[in-house]
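Input record (one chain):
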Amino acid sequence: MKKMLNTLYVTTQGAYLNKEGETVVVNIEKEARLRLPIHTLGSIVCFGQVTCSPFLLGHCAKNDVSISFMTSYGKFLAKVQGPVAGNVLLRREQYRQVDDPLASARLARMFVLGKVTNCRTILGRVARDHADKIDAVRMDETIHQYSRVSRKLLHEEDLDNIRGIEGRAAHEYFNLFDHLIVSQKEDFVFAGRSRRPPLDRVNCLLSFLYSLLYHDARSALETVGLDPAVGFLHRDRPGRLSLALDLMEEFRPVLGDRVALSLINLGQVRKNGFNVTESGAVMMNDDTRKAVLTEYQKRKQVDIEHPFLKEKIPFGMLIFAQAQLLCRYLRGDLDEYPPFVWR
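The corresponding structure, as predicted from the sequence alone:
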């Protein structure tokens, strides 16, 4: 199993990163604020107006440390990395299966099954822990409905039907999402999913966390030699990493929604940590963004037993483990791709 390395998130506007020997130095207002050995890093993610020296870019590429650039609110812009060690035979098999509708459906349904099952777990935990604060009857009905959807997915072989099932399940889940917020109810109201741009504080949190997941999914797929742009559930579109979107589906509830809910319900983020632009878009300020990144990194370091591999690994390595299992399935070593199911 690959060793879990740190991700350095740089959010301070105007920060400048450079190389000193074998270390990465973060400078703010021409003063060195942080030094990290290159061998401890797996990736660097820069938000907004953050720049890097050419020597650092080359050094990171040489040491297999990717550098991603995001907008200040988390939209992916570009990535700098060294040569990708792709397995041409593995990628050829990936492309063959993508072009086969039945093979695509077999994989797509497992991605959706993982997502639906993990959404059901999120709802079940809230129903158990906060039964006095929610519409328990409606929550139980949705949980039972998700169980029926899971059983149906196991036998579905039409890709369009699978997408339809996923869309309806996601719609019902987000219809209930406001019930999962049990504190700061007046400040964090969720009326539905809004993306580009997010139009409320909850959507701002979700979009930002999903962007982090997208980055991690891409890195995991490239590490194992798969093409992150060619997906099974999400089809080809210029500029979109469809397989990264496929892989992150089963992790949206676990590392996206759950972190967002914890931040709100435990009071780790507050109303005044968000700003509304003239266009109506809601953005986090620097302190809130740092709080989100800190919680996301903490969650990734928590150990969990993988339900298929039966070994303890950090949460942050789960997406890499799933990328490896996807490779094993494509090579024919597994009869089915086993999605990650959170208990």
